[in-house]
Amino acid sequence: MIKRSLRTIVEGTGSPMGPSDLGGRLIVLRDTLRTQLWLLPSVGVGLALGLGVGLPQLDARIGRDLPPWMTGYLFGGGASAARTVLGAIAGSLITVTSLTFSMTLVTLQLASSQFSPRLLRTFARDRFVQATLALFLATFIYALTVLRTIRSAGESREVFVPQIAVTTGFVLALVSVLALVLFLAHLARELRAETTLLRVHGEANETIRRVLPPRRFESVDVRPVSPPPEAVPLPAGASGFVLRMDESSLLSAAVEADVVLLIDCCPGSLLVAGTPMGAGWPRAATSFDADIELRLTRQVARAIRTGPERTAAHDVTYGLRQLIDVAVKALSPGINDPTTAVHALGHVSVLLCDLAGRQLGPRPLRDERGRVRVMLYQPNLADLLTMTLAQPLHYGAHDSAVLAQMFFLLRDLAWCATSDQRPAIAHQLEVLRAEAAGRQFGSREMARFDMLSKQVEQALAGRWTPAWTPS
């Protein structure tokens, strides 16, 4: 009976497959490289070395053939003056680079303590900071490289002053000064809570739109259905957070072994090596062959890639986790900033409304004949609501503004939710009501909560009411 009901669910649901394994690898690689502070500076140093070697050679070839109107704009001093200029540029730029690195580290420390340690990846992937560091290091390396090519009159070879190269160094120094001013302004803007929340929201929205397709049919939750008795647990191959799933490999393994797979984890889940992360059972036979079972276990373990930390490459809940961490941090006694918590919950509300229109819940992978072979777990709206509201409600229930924002969140989400998602919203509404009733708020605040609660109920019923009431 269990097998028949499970097959009915499996045969009756489906959705298009996600990105290919190659595309998934490229997305993870791109996300990893974007968070490395060394990448752009290394590229800048390489370009500076090439430019510092190539421009003096260009000077030696065409320097004497330049028209007079152009030479008037180039460096006109001798070898001693050129060495002084380039030495000053190199000395000042290495000092500025050290200062920039120090300010970047201070910014990362403040972001970790003020907002959340999980925001360090967001700050580290800031292209403006990486480009500024690349410019400073490139200018320093360029000045040193060109400096070695200058020859004075007393040396064995003829006098050589690369006018184009020295002028380029002077221009790079001016650009670096401007970049330093812009860098300071950029840091001041990035440390604002509003800018941080907006950046996290943008990254989360990008992941949601890339990973989750628009909603096309009602989701079917298969988690309450137990696998049949012949199902074999599939252990995780390595400990860590799930970074991505090679869906094509999972489907191929299921087709090759003629089994149905139920994978009970998703990107962002924490796995422990050797513990079950899903199950598989024969589609037609009554038991597994030992060799098939061993091969299937290894193939599934290789198809699920793990890492030491969560990333936004495929994890649609990571952005929500960051926003909730900011809200909880702001509600801590050491920070005591409920306004930031309210703003963070506002961004969570927007993301949840977008997610309500996406294909949530378990996602099946079909073979060429249209039969579902793999069922991948994905959180549904009820899971997302529990994740986003549980901690802010626990730490912020004493603040009326935070509670009111949660009511606003449910009201806005009710307008975007479908019929099968509304019971989850109604359940969270009852939890909010009970929490508000258990607190010692004044009569005016309780009246406001009652009004907001009725607005959520009417939104669930499809009726709109204004946010204000006549006095």
From TrEMBL:
Coiled coil: none annotated. Keywords: Membrane, Transmembrane, Transmembrane helix. It comes from the Bacteria. InterPro entries: DUF2254_membrane (IPR018723). The chain crosses the membrane at residues 37-58, 85-108, 128-147, 159-185. The keyword Transport does not apply. This is Putative membrane protein. It comes from Nonomuraea muscovyensis.
